[in-house]
Backbone:
């Protein structure tokens, strides 16, 4: 029944999603503030169409949170769905084959910014609920909390969660904002990395200088910053910040064997992103490097003259954005401090340094011994005809650790994306197969959970 309902409404589901994908809800860039607001309004309207109660666009210091709920019966278990309607900036636009906010279908995939992360995935929950409402039997209560600031740190959501424990009361949280191994091997995410995101400003002389009249006698902050950056990581992929690994768990051989069982084709991995070889911390597999080990990456570096032609200048300033992905027991605050102290220590007298911290977040691990996890496991088994395997994803959803801390709730990370979806990159896409199959899987999860919890 559910399957038929999805099938006979598939075109409309897509048309609706396209409406949302056309809205340029880039949360990081204030130029798009009205568009972010428009996306929130659009969601409010969708929740009203679903006849949910308490549909609300909640104002915050930043972008609005959209909330809606349907309490059918106090004795039923309550599912809280979290997702985000904001997206990453679409730059660089010229690398897109079709405009990022004009969704198009090609090779059975939807191409648009946010197609997978997270508009497409979040929207599946609305359609799953709709399907059950129309042709199913709903024996659960549901709450939706969809935010507009995930891609820039979820600042307002943190306050909202802390101040609205009652409103958010639930038995489980479910989030579709991660990926599966591939369409032959479904998986459930059981770990996400944390994040420390830093910015460094290095100043040499108080103004840009003639690189002939001064060069050789004054330190160049760009040269110096490069040197400092190269002191952050060794040739075999170890982070060199003192204390960085102090709290990192050493997993035993059994655990390592288990997590390395996930299907991973290194040649495919290399060829998809066109690299000659992988790189990372010595002694660990690629799967471990992504899922269970911390790391450090420069995200951007700039300074000096970069326009057309040559300008012989010894620049006054050099900048870099550097982020670290963290694993359990590392604390984002502590790591940010270690980073800051180490860089300050590396900075010679010939320069001055300023280190600032952007948003961060704690890592998370999901307890698999819960009725929520079992409901998700069985949903995949039923709909995909294959048992899902637990995987550790390298990305971050910092709010998951906060849900655990503030609400005492486990999150089920039931995502349906693929690595090839190119989230955050040009030509982001989301497979139609994953979209429809995902809706079906979610309906099964809701139903399983309502049965198990009773
Ligand atoms: N949905 C992603 C996180 C993700 C993607 C987890 C794929 C696992 C697999 C999320 O929207 C995201 O991009 N998070 C950011 C962190 C945030 C604080 C900006 C990230 O991981 O960089
Ligand atoms: Mn996301
Ligand atoms: Mn994202």
Residues:
């Amino acid at each position: 029944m559910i399957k038929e309902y999805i099938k006979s409404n598939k075109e409309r589901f897509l048309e609706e999603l396209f409406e949302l994908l056309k809205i340029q809800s880039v949360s990081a860039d204030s130029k798009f503030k009205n568009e972010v607001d428009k996306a929130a309004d659009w969601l409010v309207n969708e929740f009203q169409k679903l006849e949910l109660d308490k549909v609300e666009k909640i104002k915050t210091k930043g972008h609005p949170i959209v909330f809606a709920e349907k309490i059918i019966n106090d004795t039923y278990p309550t599912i809280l769905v979290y997702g985000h309607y904001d997206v990453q900036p679409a730059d660089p636009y010229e690398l897109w084959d079709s405009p990022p906010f004009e969704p198009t279908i090609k090779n059975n995939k939807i191409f648009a910014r946010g197609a997978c992360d997270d508009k497409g995935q979040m929207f599946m929950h609305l359609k799953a609920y709709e399907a059950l409402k129309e042709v199913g039997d709903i024996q659960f209560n549901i709450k939706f909390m969809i935010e507009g600031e995930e891609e820039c740190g979820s600042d307002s959501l943190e306050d909202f969660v802390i101040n609205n424990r009652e409103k958010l009361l639930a038995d489980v949280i479910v989030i579709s904002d991660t990926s599966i191994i591939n369409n032959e091997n479904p998986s459930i995410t059981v770990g996400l990395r944390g994040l420390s995101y830093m910015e460094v400003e290095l100043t040499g002389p108080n103004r840009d200088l003639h690189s002939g009249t001064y060069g050789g006698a004054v330190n160049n902050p760009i040269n110096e910053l490069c040197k400092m950056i190269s002191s952050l990581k060794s040739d075999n992929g170890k982070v060199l910040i003192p204390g960085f690994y102090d709290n990192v768990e050493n997993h035993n051989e059994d655990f390592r064997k288990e997590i390395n069982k996930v299907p991973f084709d290194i040649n495919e991995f290399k060829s998809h992103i066109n690299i000659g070889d992988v790189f990372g911390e010595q002694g660990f597999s690629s799967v471990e490097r992504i899922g269970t080990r911390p790391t450090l990456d420069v995200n951007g570096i700039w300074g000096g003259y970069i326009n057309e032609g040559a300008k012989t200048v010894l620049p006054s300033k050099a900048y870099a954005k550097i982020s670290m992905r963290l694993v359990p027991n590392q604390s984002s605050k502590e790591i940010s401090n270690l980073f800051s102290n180490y860089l300050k220590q590396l900075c010679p007298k010939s320069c001055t340094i300023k280190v600032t911290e952007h948003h961060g977040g704690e890592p998370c691990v999901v307890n698999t011994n819960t009725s929520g996890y079992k409901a998700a496991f069985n949903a995949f088994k039923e709909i995909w005809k294959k048992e899902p395997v637990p995987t550790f994803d390298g990305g971050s959803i910092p709010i998951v650790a906060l849900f655990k801390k503030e609400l005492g709730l486990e999150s089920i990370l039931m995502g349906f994306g693929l690595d090839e979806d190119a989230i955050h990159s040009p030509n982001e896409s989301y497979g139609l197969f994953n979209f429809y199959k995902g809706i079906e899987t979610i309906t099964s999860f809701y139903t399983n959970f309502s049965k198990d919890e009773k």
User: Anything to note?
Assistant: Residues 117-118, 150-151, 153, 177-179, 192, 195, 359, 361, 393, 395-398 surround BES (ligand 1) (CB under 6 Å). The radius of gyration is 23 Å. The chain has a mean pLDDT of 97.
